[in-house]
Amino acid sequence: FVDFTLKICNFFKKAWKIGVDDPRKFAHGLRVGVALCVVSLFYYMRPLYNGVGGNAIWAVMTVVVVFEYTVGATLYKSLNRICATCLAGFLAIGVHWVASQSGTKFEPFILGASVFLLASAATFSRFIPVVKARFDYGVTIFILTFSLVSVSGYRVEKLLDLAHQRLATIIIGTALCMVTAMVVYPIWAGEELHFLIIRNMEKVSDSLDGCVADYFKDDEANPNNDEACSKNLEAYKSALNSKGSEDAMANFARWEPAHGLFTFNHPWKQYLKVSAALRNCAYCIEALNSCLYSENKSPDFVKIHLGDSCSSVSSHSCEIIKELAQTIKTMTRSSQIDMSVMKLNDSVQLLHENLKSLSTSLIQEEVPQSKTNENAHKESVLTVSLMDVIPLVSFASLLIEIAGRVEGLVEA
Amino acid sequence: FVDFTLKICNFFKKAWKIGVDDPRKFAHGLRVGVALCVVSLFYYMRPLYNGVGGNAIWAVMTVVVVFEYTVGATLYKSLNRICATCLAGFLAIGVHWVASQSGTKFEPFILGASVFLLASAATFSRFIPVVKARFDYGVTIFILTFSLVSVSGYRVEKLLDLAHQRLATIIIGTALCMVTAMVVYPIWAGEELHFLIIRNMEKVSDSLDGCVADYFKDDEANPNNDEACSKNLEAYKSALNSKGSEDAMANFARWEPAHGLFTFNHPWKQYLKVSAALRNCAYCIEALNSCLYSENKSPDFVKIHLGDSCSSVSSHSCEIIKELAQTIKTMTRSSQIDMSVMKLNDSVQLLHENLKSLSTSLIQEEVPQSKTNENAHKESVLTVSLMDVIPLVSFASLLIEIAGRVEGLVEA
């Protein structure tokens, strides 16, 4: 029993930590509570209750189902729900009218067949990528409303009244959600995406820096420093694994109105392209990292020979990535980027030269042949991997220049 | 207008193609239709209707909301829905009883406060990873049911009757969904995961093979072949991007009962580990691939020197990956794997030797120094990247041996 209590305590501690780390999550819980209470007023207060009747329950339901963490997700669900309800309602009333004209005998069959056909078609349509991305929730609500109205139409007399009231309550519910989501501590999916990508860029640049520094540093560093280092090195992994959430956020961000620095038609797709380029960089760092932990190490003189040029390449790369992050942050084109790219190219050239001279010097030494060469190739892996990073970085810089231009246009 | 019609035609063509490629998607649409029609019978047939009353609509709703593509997802939603409804119902009735004892004046306040508190807490709990993974839907339903019952309890007299009927209809709906999902063309999330990972393993091994072959082949290959090759090369990307869907499927697979080759407690987590190892391999192939497309090529004599040993390393790696895929497919431990791993190690050793001899021969030639060395390091990148692949492959093999053993235990 003590074990069980301890587990529960731990669970609550963890939960509390999540909330303290990101107080907006607490705020979201409170927002939902407030919205629910406000909507319950329709039930508690007589004048409001008389307006919409027992269907007030639908407003409560709408709030629970529609209210999401980000504004974009809430808007997506709200708009989908309203549109799908309207469309399905009209269709169902139309089918009901046709069925009622054809006599009591055929009525249930016509209704049943229409439900079967539309539900099958709509369910299948959810597999189409475009529908899946933008209207998945809407299709569910469409099937729901259509079958509810057409099935209950068989027994309920005042179908139009019912539909009208239901639509009114759903609109009340969604409107309340939208307003609450946008006014009380709004959390914009677009903003989240924006900062997520900037954060990832910084992490990737830190890892690149750390990785190269780690490779060339003395082995006698103090262990405390090492731990921080390895944390830095692992940072790029978050860039590797964030594809799913980025896609979802870009999807929701499309539904958001203008807010803060972002206009309505902000080029969210550019963000996805940037993050794809960034992921490519992260793959390269992954490869570099595995060199770092491989068994055979290069001798010190090779390290010293190449250390400076390698570090200059990596530091220039880091600079560019950080500058790009800054560019995205401020959404203005930085004039320094072209300069930095030129500097980077220069240092790559220098590294090339150094490699060539290294090979020459190695051949001149000729002692211990096999070992040094073994290590030289180890070394060169590092540099070539770095060289792999560079086209990707310049690719990313191009992309972001495009993004910057588009943003410039939007702002103008 | 013609443009518009064309677009719609295209849309339908695409949709049709999706269905033809995977007929199970059509089947799923039909299944939902059938389930909805069966549940509508409760409304159309008088004896059934008298049993559950107007609440039959809840059964329809449950079917629409709960029915998902895979059995695991359907079970997850069904069980979550039933449990959450029961729990919230009892809680709400309890709170209602307390509130009704405290007089009419305080009643709405107590009800409102309880809704506010529980809704806030439950919404916040959705941010906790464990809850998010397993009970996300259940929490939504909990909030929904609790607020519905406690809010409508303020006006509706026979609360217990209402709750009882609603629970009955929900159980009818979920039971119908579960039976339909499991009996009519079942699509098991576990099976999907199983085959997805096997397919990914085969793709990665094909890409590795194709990549190395491409590097060492003559440039005068016919273009037709090239296209197939590049398709092969791109195959590993599907392994890179499948993390999200794998996680979701492993999550759903946990809810599934024993089916086909899989028992109830099948070690689904092992699949995730295997796929993580596989993704590591895919990163390496990504790095290899960038070598393939880089500008500076190595001279032919280096290629000839190393070609054989490189191809033997890669073919052994491919063999191992394919054998592991076979192991997972049949869920038996193959005795050949140890042998293959040994062979692989031998060929790696050979490659090492070749590299050393290459460097020696290079030094003996000493003409054209800088150029050959430049290329030698290019070459060595390839081989070292291959060597990077190997620990990963052996890591994967270890993992799958563990998986095989666990499965052997489960089967025994």
Condensed summary:
2 copies of one chain form a homodimer. Helices cover 83% and strands 0% of the residues of chain A. Chain A is built from 16 helices and no strands.
**Averaged pLDDT of chain A:** 69
> What is the alpha-carbon Rg of chain A in Å?
30 Å
Number of strand segments of chain A: 0
User: What is the general shape of chain A?
Assistant: elongated
Helix/strand class of chain A: mainly alpha
Low-confidence stretches of chain A: 219-224, 362-412
Sheet having the most strands of chain A: none
Helix content of chain A: over 70%
Strand content of chain A: under 5%
Main interface by residue count: A-B, 81 and 80 residues
Order of helices and strands of chain A: HHHHHHHHHHHHHHHH
Oligomer: homodimer
Distance between the termini of chain A: 66 Å
What is this structure's SSE topology?
The structure is a homodimer of 412-residue chains.
Chain A (H helix, E strand, L loop, with lengths): L1 H20 L1 H22 L1 H7 L3 H11 L4 H31 L5 H19 L3 H24 L6 H25 L5 H28 L6 H12 L1 H5 L2 H11 L14 H25 L7 H31 L5 H30 L3 H43 L1
Task: Please tell me about this protein's structure.
- The structure is a homodimer of 412-residue chains.
- Chain A is an all-alpha fold and 412 residues long.
- Chain A contains 16 helices and no strands.
- Chain A has helices at residues 2-21, 23-44, 46-52, 56-66, 71-101, 107-125, 129-152, 159-183, 189-216, 223-234, 236-240, 243-253, 268-292, 300-330, 336-365, 369-411.
- In chain A, helix 9 (189-216) packs parallel to helix 13 and helix 9 (189-216) packs antiparallel against helix 14 (300-330).
- The longest helix of chain A has 43 residues, at 369-411.
- Chain A is elongated and about 95 Å long.
- The termini of chain A are far apart.
- Mean pLDDT of chain A is 69; it is low at 219-224 and 362-412.
- The interface between A and B is large, with 81 and 80 residues.
